[in-house]
Amino acid sequence: MGKFKRTLITTALPYANGPIHIGHLAGVYVPADIYARYLRLKNEDVLLIGGSDEHGVPITLKAKNEGITPQDVVDKFHKIIKESFKTFGISFDVYSRTSSEIHHKTASEFFKKMYERGQFIEKTSEQYYDEENQQFLADRYIIGTCPKCGFEKAYGDQCESCGTSLSPTELINPTSMISGNQPVLKETKHWYLPLDQYEPWLREWILEEHKEWKPNVYGQCKSWIDSGLQPRAVTRDLNWGVPVPVEGAEGKVLYVWFDAPIGYISATRELTPDWEKYWKDPETRLLHFIGKDNIVFHCIIFPSMLKAEGTYNLPDNVPANEFLNLENDKISTSRNWAVWLHEYLEDFPGKEDVLKYVLTANAPETKDNDFTWKDFQARNNNELVAILGNFVNRALVLTNKYFGGKVPERGTLTDYDKETLASIKTIKAETEKSLDSFRFREALKNAMDLARLGNKYLADEEPWKVFKTDPKRVETILNVCLQITANLTICLEPFLPFSMEKLRGFLNMEKLDWEKLGNTDLLLAGHQVSTPELLFEKIDDSVIEAQLQKLLDTKKANELSEAKANPAKESIEFDDFGKMDIRVGTVVEAEKVAKTKKLLKLKIDTGIDKRTVVSGIAEYYQPEDLIGKQVSILVNLEPKKLKGIESQGMILCAENADGTLSIVTPDQKVKNGSEVK
């Protein structure tokens, strides 16, 4: 820790318009939790702060689409997010929310102090206004044609088709998403943070004083600063958020990017009356754990806000991660292309640590990485089960078998014994070094080397063979194995907390501090251990196939929703249409046509007669389900022989984008023979 007495860890506030997915976990919450648990094991003063980001336009859009209030939206998702984190074992000291009273108070005070010190500039600009609803439109409330690629549903801030950043006035044919009308330009006043004034200071503070920051973070900051910073609006015309606490600012709220990071302060304030000690004492170290899309806010904008306010600590480090993809495709909430945490917890009960392990081993620390279900299965089966679980199980089973579950005495140590025990301290040093520099993938690999060490030692010493000739030697071998096992409960605690609690139960031992790691007498001779259960279990192919099928179904649903209707056929005369005689009839008999996959033979009461129709719907309907069903039938179609059966007409079906067929049927029962007009 050096010059610091305590550490305050903040985690990016997840947006409360949807649940948590593995991208969030890998990018922010798993590494932050590992680090907080590690510092707690070292008995350091540390707080892990989290909360839901509940303001902004996407919340109001979702509320409008669902016909509920923004508060209803955030209440629903805040609850899901908070409970998922708790079950998963993210060890927040507080998990707050930005719709709370204490947050509104804190954000207002922060703004007011900056305002009174003259830290903002006021600017009047023209913005789009919906005359019917009498409100200014946030960028996301405006859609139009992208001037770059011609996509017709580009938002006022970005085209989701080509990715170009836009301003609403660049859109061709802009439309209000509220009324559907074309908006007009109208003057409005807003307050701006003059980031350009902080450029020389940021250049010094980041580029000169924080060269130790991760290359991806430092590089993005340098790029922003070198491009030249511009004043940035801190208020918006919106009715959902923290009201701007200034006279003449009615109908305006703090811009969500301004109020959200203040959520870290309000959450700490909610947790402890000593909150200022964690934010204003220079002996406190501030760390922001975030994803790469938040680097500019946490390294440039929020520090500029803190600097302007004047009394707060600045972040010491911002160990941001890159993005995690899913099965070689970008995770997308809108496309439902994600592994959702609350669903994982239902599908894999008791396997919280497996997901933590895989997300850490595959963390996108320096570049985007990919989560695949096959890799998840392989890491569970080949590493957690075959390396860690296997070693622990063998050490305990052999102790129970040969010595009744009592830790045996350690006799004379061979050079190999001494070398093996000394390796524990080396592994501790390597793991510590990686954790201290936020290299969590490497830290986990180093910690797992302890289990690899144990496995190799057991395989080399073969106590099951030695016992036949030298049971005394086996006492020493198993004592060494049990000391490694006890050390595992400390070394892997930050990464696999549920599993290590289970392992301590097998060993009948208390939770030990990090300083004890490396000791070779954690379990004394004569100490009783329990009969072990399996620490981890294999995951079968069928379980993984079910998850892959879920994703395939999602992909199919996305393709269907994005599919465009075929263009209309050439125009016909009304008289041509009038020649078709379409009636409603009822299916009275139905059977499959032998030696065909698609054909059904139907008998239909058309109100005129009872006739046979052969239809290619066998893949979508069972014969027995059709009896009694009313259908639309073209009765004046020339008869045609199909598989030797004369078909006297055609029933009408709608063909979906994926080729599936649905029978066109009246929405209520009508008399057979009724004409379709």
From TrEMBL:
Pfam families: Anticodon_3, tRNA-synt_1g, tRNA_bind. Its EC number is 6.1.1.10. GO terms for biological process: methionyl-tRNA aminoacylation. Coiled coil: none annotated. The keyword Signal does not apply. The keyword Flavoprotein does not apply. One of its GO terms (cellular component) is cytosol. ATP binds at residue 333. Keywords: Aminoacyl-tRNA synthetase, ATP-binding, Cytoplasm, Ligase, Metal-binding, Nucleotide-binding, Protein biosynthesis, RNA-binding, tRNA-binding, Zinc. Binds 1 zinc ion per subunit. SUPFAM superfamilies: Anticodon-binding domain of a subclass of class I aminoacyl-tRNA synthetases (SSF47323), Methionyl-tRNA synthetase (MetRS), Zn-domain (SSF57770), Nucleic acid-binding proteins (SSF50249), Nucleotidylyl transferase (SSF52374). It catalyses: tRNA(Met) + L-methionine + ATP = L-methionyl-tRNA(Met) + AMP + diphosphate. Zn(2+) binds at residues 146, 149, 159, 162. It is an enzyme of class 6 (ligase). Belongs to the class-I aminoacyl-tRNA synthetase family. MetG type 1 subfamily. Homodimer. This is Methionine--tRNA ligase.
